[in-house]
Amino acid sequence: MVKLNFDKMGGLIPAIVQDHKTGEILMLAFMNKDAWETTLTSGKATYYSRTRQTLWIKGKTSGNLQIVKEIRIDCDDDTVLLKVEQIGGAACHTGHKSCFHKMVEGESIRMIGKPVFNPEEVYNR
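-> structure tokens emitted (125 positions)
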């Protein structure tokens, strides 16, 4: 079993998520040991929600699952890079393909791309 260092951030490690085909960074999330082990056994990206303080299978509610194609671990064993197949075309809860859809231009922000889905319809908000 692969051992990661969960000690530095109170039991969590950052997980950088990248589209396995395009290389685009889709999101940053956190994993605890349970999320890590669930990801390894299921092949579906699973994270720890710091807000809800529970495990979160990406796409369980929206259908926008992340199927893990490759995992890389940094030199300190405390950060992972998940290369995923993004099902449904959107990684962000706002409906955008990537959570990184805001570009800083001088002192303003420009939105990049349009949402793939309407979050109010998907999450019943």
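The first strand starts at residue 13 and ends at 19.
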